[in-house]
Amino acid sequence: MSSLALQRVVVRMLFDPPFTHAVLGGAKLSELTDEEHDWIRAADARAFRIDPYRRGRALAALIEEFPVVSALAVRAAGGVPRLDAFFSSEIFHAGIQAGASLALLYAEYARTLDADYALSERAAVIELAHGTLDSYEAMHSRLTTGERAIIECVTDQGFAPDLGPLPGGGPPDRLLLFAREQAQGTAKVEKLTPELFAILELCTEGAPKRELLARFAELGANAAEAGDVLDDLVQSGELVRGAGS
Amino acid sequence: MPSFLERLEWLPRLGIGVSTEYGAAAHDDSLDVFALRGREPGLARFLEIGVEIAKGLDADAERWIGAALPSTYHFLDINLDDPDDFDPAWMSAVGELVERIDPAWLCGDAGLWHFGPRERGHMLLLPPILSDDGASRMAEGIVRLREATGREVLPENPPGSAFIGNLHLLDFFARVCERADTGMLLDCAHLAIYQKTRVHGPEVGLADFPVERIIEMHVAGSQEHELDGYLYYEDDHTPAVLDDTRQIFTTATQRAENPRAVVFECERNPMEACLPGFARIQEILGEEWAS
Predict the structure, then answer these.
(1) B263 touches B48 (CB < 8 A)
(2) Within a domain: A165
(3) What is the pTM of this model?
(4) Gap between the Cα atoms of A99 and B126, Å rounded
(5) Residue of B81, B118, B122, B129 best to disrupt the A interface, most CBs of A under 10 A
(6) Which of A188, A198, B114, B212 lies at a C-alpha separation of 20 to 30 Å from A212?
(7) Which of A85, A113, A141 is the last residue of a domain?
(8) CA B270 to CA B239: how far, in whole Å?
(9) What CA–CA distances, in Å, run from A185 to A181, A188, A218?
(10) ipTM, 2 decimals?
(11) What is B14-285's CATH topology?
């Protein structure tokens, strides 16, 4: 691993005493080597507690930055302790380890406070007129011959005079838009079945698992199948586990 | 490129100076650097300007620069060991400010100044991970900043309450300085904090440190606190300098071969409270630093 990963673990320990207790007590972290575990366990647990107001100050700043979503969360989700629990959440720990913005992590946490699953910030589901994606791809394919510049093909009215039918006249296209990690490319657009669209749409603002399972059941899937689908979607990054999970 | 020890001849001898950062002089009982320079010019020969790019320079720093007085640029917002922290916007802003300030060199705590991106609520200061890998990463960052700004970049040992890693702090910085081929800003107060935290004597490790690379030294007060029996030390820049800090400073002064600058960090204290500390520093430095 690297000193950067270890440094980020230290930051997480400063904000989360139960996490510190677990790490110093022997919990294994996948981001650290055995040697790095030894280094960190050599530290005195009290050294991580010398600023007891660090977490409170950070939470106050986040509440000031996101007053409305915080107010909604406080009222709907059981008071300020649920907000304070952000610093012990998977969203906080995974995000800090990845070098993310604390404010954006908090916003995601507050948004999904009562959700087990939520659509990733990098994903969106949309409905377009029937055949939009197919029409676009067909027209684009006719315009890109590889022999002439695209600007010529577009402006030459004699080239490919019939680009194909315009979309419309049937059930809407249901699409998933997903911005990939940089290393994997830019973005993907994927057609969704009506069933999967219904599930992902439910997750747009975050959804509890029981609600999703009920919807899966309506669509004819049992709990095991539903769990597999949700796991796959989390694995591929389209869904994230919410603060409630 | 000449080696650092060859480049040394281009570094001016700044003498004794004081430090500041944005807003430090705003309080009534803060040190007025201009008043100090007027009364005791030898104690404020230069100003170490602490800079966080997001905040910029305050009125006192602007006034000092406007008077073309000697200065150094102390960064407060770069994680030297993280390549992603050298984003173009920050690099560009630093470049412009360095041109304006025209510092003798850049320096600053080589630690974690912020986690994640530079945002509100992300700022802190943690010591680096004291490992060989960490030293190499830090050295790469120093070289990068030096090449980008055209100025020497001197790493400073940061304070902390928990030091993680398998190297002694001085061994870590010896590796950093050697790999980056640069000089060192030895913060004697921070080193005393480290030694006390690790339950070492104040001078442990100094004998093996490449003292020819010590270019600048800091002296500052620190305060001891206790939590459930655990002693820790706050780098509070009061005039109350720990005995261990003074001992480290005395030994380092005797051994350093190429010192150019000493800062008494006391920017948030009234002048009268700071003068005895300056006198002790002058006494340790001796006559040759008086002029």
Answers:
(1) yes
(2) yes
(3) 0.82
(4) 16
(5) B129
(6) A188
(7) A113
(8) 10
(9) 7, 9, 36
(10) 0.93
(11) TIM Barrel (3.20.20)
